Amino acid sequence: QVQLQESGGASVQAGDSLRLSCAASTRTFSTYGMGWFRQAPGKEREFVAAHSRSGSSTIYADSVKGRFTISRDNSKNTLYLQMNSLKPEDTAVYYCHALSPELMNYWGQGTQVTVSS
Questions:
Q1: What is the helix (H) or strand (E) element at residue 67, kind and residue range?
Q2: How far is residue 111's CA from residue 95's CA, in Å, rounded to a whole number?
Q3: Which residues are 49's β-sheet partners?
Q4: Helix (H, G, I), strand (E, B) or coil at 89
Q5: How many other C-beta atoms are found inside a 10 Å radius of the C-beta of residue 3?
Q6: Which of 15, 76, 92, 93 has its CA 20 to 30 A from that of 5?
Q7: Cβ distance 108 to 21 under 8 Å?
Q8: DSSP conformation class of 68
Q9: What pLDDT tens digit does each residue of the chain (117 aa) get?
Q10: What residues contact 27, with CB distance under 8 A and at least 6 apart?
Q11: Whole-angstrom Cα distance, residue 106 to residue 87?
């Protein structure tokens, strides 16, 4: 069982930056595929970004491409999401996701990001 704990959510102004963190409770963090999803009020949860186990591959939703950067520090068992040029439409609860080598899915509790215009 892997526990994921997000942090870094806040209320900011449009154009500001935030960095989200996700700490994972596993010693085999480097073997997990990691990603970020978000859910805005009244909407379904949507994919934001993902980072491969090896760290050589990342993928982004079109809506955040060029503004958000996903990264990981395997020595700290931590996933990050650097969010720049934030827009009001980025307002959502952001969830950390982990996919184990056995294809088990794990989710964090989420962290709120609110962007006002």
A1: none
A2: 7
A3: 36, 60
A4: helix
A5: 12
A6: 15
A7: no
A8: E
A9: 899 999 999 999 999 999 999 999 998 999 999 999 999 999 999 999 999 887 679 999 999 999 999 999 999 999 999 999 999 999 999 999 999 999 999 999 999 999 999
A10: 77
A11: 28
